[in-house]
User: What shape does this take?
Amino acid sequence: MLSLLTRKMWGLKGRLHSKLAGAVQGYKQARIFRRTVVPYPSTIYLAVNTRCGFACKMCDVGMDQYDTQFYKIMSLSKDKPRERLALDRLKTLVDEVKDFKPMIAATSTEPLLYKDLIPLCDYVVSNGLSMLVTTAGLQLEKLAEDLVRVGVQHLWVSIDGPPEIHNDIRGVKDSFQKSAAGIRALDDWKRQLGRDYPKIGINYALSNHNYHCLEPFMAAVHALPVDQITFSHMNYVTARTAEVHNARFGHLYPATVSSVSNADPTKVDVDVLWDQINLVKTRYPERVVFGPDLDRKGVEDFYYHPEVFVRGDRCYVPWRAAEIIANGDCIVMTRCFQVSFGNIYEQSFKEIWNGPRYQEFRKNLITHGSYPACSRCCGIL
Assistant: This one.
């Protein structure tokens, strides 16, 4: 038996080794983030289509805000036909990237309206990669068996309040009820097929439409078989933020307002929201996560002072993740600037990832760290 002193020494050595390993990893990451040619990403997001079916009050697409960067990035216009990524090209993409094992995430616009979603998920999983699907859930009950059977590992359902609030925000009658039925169907099929996956989460997008009802929402969903519930503070760009940004950086990457056409962060009563945050943290400590998790001053700054960076002021997304939209363009993220680094119908993903346009974008971020229009982007929070 080891003596107490020996065990303590070994424990100290282990902690020092862990700290040293962490320091070495941090040093390596710091070196990577100073480079424009970088390792391949850990996640590739896919906007597989431009179909949605909702009229969400906090969304430029749902509100038909044609002149916003988010609407334009999603390849939408009044005169342009709907688009979708071709399954054959996505299979080739999987073949190109499977050696570095990124997670493939179908997140936009509504993946369950993409007719080739199940064959895509099957191909991703059968090639040893992790598959994530994010959905608003209207078609979830119908596709639950297939999603479980092909082995999708992660599935997130967007629900933004208790039934009456969620249905109003989304502009679709009974959408809460349909999402809940889909989650229960997933759980039923997991048990029938003896599967542990997909792990199921709910994401709640906070805005002035639902900041006051976090606890009633939790009461409405607490019985659903989900692994995690995330409350995400709204992503937005105000007119003033866009103006300040464009005065300095419009020549590089112009910005527009985003997600404020029918949502207003200044209408969030921070006192009420703060009480709701603490209430759900206290009552549901094992299930609830906030993105970002802010203190009282941080919450106030988030909604009332959009010029303040509440959680860091550097963007690392172009070093860690990539997104491909429905027309094949490789971009930063759908809520970032309208810039394309290349198109997968014209080049391989690996050629694009460290190509000249990606390198130029990284170089500018190394120089500037971030831009005023980045302050409320999920990529920096």
